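Weekly structure sync, notes
Attendees: PL (lead), two postdocs, one rotation student
Agenda item 3: pending single-chain targets
PL asked that the sequence for the first pending target be pasted directly into the notes so everyone works from the same version. It is reproduced below exactly as submitted, 89 residues in total.
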Amino acid sequence: MLTPLNRRELTTLRSLDDSERIRQALDAQGIEYQVKAKSRTSIGALNMGSRELLGAGSLLNQGSTWYEIYVKKEDWEAACHVTGLGSPR
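Predicted structure, written out during the meeting:
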């Protein structure tokens, strides 16, 4: 089970297709993962959103959702290898 204490961010993506490719690679190897989707248009205490600043029309041409993919810390190197995200630091 992934928790904030035992996970590490693998990548952040703006494309749902790229996110799906990464998820399929992790599934194929049996690597547990967690995806968090964050909307750039949501209003929060610290984020006033970009819709109010840029207008809704400007958001149609760009990804307004970011996908953060997390894996267990001990699986991070293997996840980097199977997803092609480069060698771990």
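Discussion points:
- The radius of gyration is 15 Å.
- The longest helix spans residues 16-29.
Action: rotation student to compare against the earlier draft before next sync.
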